[in-house]
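hey so i finally got around to running the thing on that chain from the lab meeting. sorry it took forever, my laptop kept dying and i had to restart like 3 times. anyway pasting the input first so we r on the same page abt which one it is
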Amino acid sequence: MKKIYNMTFAKLYPILVAKAVKKGRTREDVDEITCWLTGYSKEDLNRFLDGGITYGDFFLQAPSLNPKRKLIKGVVCGIRVEDISEPLMQEIRYLDKLIDELAKGKPMEKILRT
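ok and heres what got predicted. didnt touch it at all, straight out
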């Protein structure tokens, strides 16, 4: 099992937020993207930051993975997200890719594939 699956959401999510904030975006932007992708509410995200849910379980237990996530294309960590064969890793990389797009200044409408 990949090490990232067992890391806590509370440890990894602030890293995503910091990446966005460093580029002039906000935690609210990151929350909006994460909720869009997973179906969790902002209250859920806050609860997970206080709890011990693993990053793997965060995605495995997502209430409603957005079907538009399959439109996410591009490279994260040198790998095309659309070519990742392991479903859980692909879900994790979808979020990474969306945060990359946010940090690069892409408009929210395009990030959320609307």
